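Reopening: structure tokens for the magnesium ion complex, inputs below.
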Amino acid sequence: MEILKQRPSRHPVERLTLLVLLLLSSVTLLTTLGVILSLLGDVVQFFRRVPLAEFLFAPEWTPLFAEPRYGIAPLLAGTFLVTAIALFVAVPLGLALAVYVSEYLPSDKRARVLGVLELFGGIPTVVFGYFALLFVTPLLQKVIPGLSLFNPLSAGLVMGFAILPYVSNVAADAMQSVPRSIREAAYALGARPYEVALKVVLPAALSGVIAAIILAASRAIGETMIVAIAAGQRPTLTLDPRETIATMTSYIVQAATGDQPVGSTAYYALFAVGFTLFLLTLALNVLAQYIVERYRERYE
Amino acid sequence: MNRTPTPEAFGQDPWKARIDRVFARALVLPLLLALGLLALLLGDTLYRSVSVQVVRADMGPGHTYPFGLSAETILRQELLAQGYTEEEAAFMLQDPKERNALFLQNRVELMWNTHEGPFRYVVTNVYDERVADFSLAEGLRRWNELKANLQEGERLVLNPWLDQTFLTRPPSRSPLTAGIGVAIWGTVWVLSLALFFAIPVGIGTAILLEEYLREGRLSRILEVNLRNLAGVPSIVYGLLGLALFVRGMGLGPSVLAAALTLGLLGIPVIVVTAREALRAVPDSLRLAAFALGATQRQVVFRVVVPAALPGMVTGVILSAARLIGEAAPLLLVGAAAYVPFAPTGPLSQYTVIPVQIYLWISQNQPEFARVAAAGILVMLLLLSALYLMALYLRNRFRREW
Amino acid sequence: MVSLEQLKEHQTVRTDPVPESQALVDVRQLSLWYGTKQALYDISVRFPKNQVTAIIGPSGCGKSTLLRSLNRMNDLVPGVRVKGEVLYEGVNIYDPRVDPVAVRRHIGMVFQKPNPFPKTIFENVAFGLRLMGVKGSELEDRVVEALKRAALWEEVKDRFKKESGLRLSGGQQQRLCIARAIAVEPPLLLMDEPTSALDPIATQAIEDLILELKERYTVVIVTHNMQQAARVSDRTLFMHLGVLVEEGPTEVIFTKPKHPYTEAYITGRFG
Ligand SMILES: Nc1ncnc2c1ncn2[C@@H]1O[C@H](COP(=O)(O)OP(=O)(O)O)[C@@H](O)[C@H]1O
Ligand SMILES: [Mg+2]
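Re-run output (same inputs, fresh job):
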């Protein structure tokens, strides 16, 4: 209750408490600052050596070659490919799950199913990567000729399940916040349950649902272990899901587990990629928040 | 009334009614699919963690030993079989240094089946050589054939890779003797230190936001910032850790650097769960305390926080579970190194369970996939324990206000 | 002051009962349970065509429950059990062969709090029509017609295709909900305390509207505002603790009620 938050008292112990709390919480602000500054310093170093145009437009990413090229495009293409495949799985499944959980399950089962789905998100992503590489890929190779051992297809498919709870649970939350009275109005007009779900609740929760999808996309872009394990670490400018590729995250892992001497261009390239990744996911998160705020329906 | 109305007069719409039924049924499919995938994933990992192997023993015959013998007896017999004399064997088992080296190099494993019968011990050492490794189904099918074709010095075993010695052993270049012990200790060190940093910050921030700050600029900034931090990919925290802790503060690839990195990653989750716990405390409690003349601090720390404690603990456990599985950021702050010893302090080198699993997966030898499966099972068991604990706490302390 | 046992003994007191031939809805010995809790006790009553019937009674007495059992909205509550019959134009809507969804298409409903969909005004009114497959210019015409009949047209005619229904004032929202309900031309319109969330001026507009709607529709309105019941209704039902205590022409109920409880309630001695 707002009114219970008193003005800070003049008593020294009270003020000290507040001060300590403020100091503690400033760590969260410092973290953001740290992320930006620590990345930025090395990013600046990188762009001292590599022109921005090269970074943006060169078609190859080969920092370790004798004649290195530093074009981010292959990494972006790889990231995009895996993310698209993951969303292709997670969005339909997640939305269907959300509708099912929010509109068809009685409230006592609702919490339980959401909890189970959340557990799904709690499985470490190395495990998903392992499954993609050793189970899904061999299976797909039987069906799809020319599928590389490391490929964005199985990484993306499995990642779709890993990010499923981000779609389903956030979307279900959005649907649950649509007031019951609106559902009743639709039922009273003779709508069937599926019409209520699809024509009333889903549109009413649309901003939340879109935000859920954007957040899931941002997760997929930043997800590391599944791609590092199953999609490969060879930057290739392609949208063919059968070929070995690298994403921004898998490149960072590759570079970090090899040994780039501190101060080399390849070392700074790590931070340039990381910063791009940071900006991209930040933009998506901000966009999702904006959509939720801007288009939230204000019911009575 | 001059007409005889029938119920059908209401105009059934059989077509739409059917869509409705189909729709309601079809919606269950995604849930079944997701659960099916989960079952498949667990089943596949379990399946891979057991295999049928033919191993050529480095020295001596491919002996197996009956169930019930102590590891020490078995090692002594193995040494004798390798040609050591009684005195030499006794000396090696008594001298602490020799003994330690012996136990590091030789792994006494209980096999589910061997060519000499079920549930017998074998001794595996670093120099043993794999002849063949079969999946469970194929191995069992060809068991008799394999047994008949065993060469001198070879042994046939049904090997459960996840066993007791796996939990305590250090990593190894040979999959036959690799263990997850060092990584478990690394996880314990890194996680405890990380929580040590993250809990005060996370809970302090939650208390500040829920109990102290009125809605205004500062609370808005903190909230927006937290929301964005929660969305930053974990690998970016790794870059932060690399630049700031490993290099900037000169901590090197140490437990401390990893703990700081992981701690920062954990803060947003802890804040969210702690805020929920605080919000669940009804205002009537606060009002009652204020009415008794308590100061703000007394209300918060003597009434509200104790009431919210079970919820906060649950939240911390859940975020710990999240952090345990994080591999990506730690790869950047030194966990990828080959570390043969458990950490002894905050500045030790370390590796953690998920990174160890990743390293095994990246190896070429097929048995490392089995070692990785065993590692995954260990990690999942650990996580299940934490989730069950959180669940227990949540139910045990659930209160109807 | 009144025990349920005493009430249950009692037969409903009726003045000028509605003859079967004039009834649009004929409720016969209806009882209803929410799980194990009984909310309606053996209710029999007829609702005459093209008249306004008001249901009054203290809160929690089952007014809404009775109203919602007329279009089977209660089916949406898990664990509901119904005994008895509700004949609509002679058909028992609780017959197992009847599809509750089809019933609701014939019967409009307006709720206590305005609940427009978060869609445009047009789409709100068009919703029921679209469910029935109405399209194109006919859809448009019938939406406009409904808005006119709900006395909302003049206020929204230049923006009804663009503006969200949630942007309207409370009174306008409620008239929008009425327009939405009557767009499909339901012979019967159910209203559950439709003005309880509105200010006096908006209430006045809705009451005027109800009197106009009476020409074309049969209206059943739940209200706990007795002046409102007196102003708009032709007949009044008084309920207490799930029992229909008395029913009759509104002026009889309000001026010379026969049952002592009715009198006590009307004169404000309980409820
Ligand atoms: N969905 C429900 N589940 C259980 N009991 C209910 C439900 N709706 C109403 N009731 C109970 O039925 C009785 C009648 O309620 P209601 O018809 O809403 O009364 P009124 O509209 O006259 O205020 C009340 O005692 C109420 O508690
Ligand atoms: Mg009511």
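The radius of gyration of chain A is 23 Å. Chain A touches chain C through 22 residues (CB under 8 Å). Marking as resolved unless the reporter disagrees.
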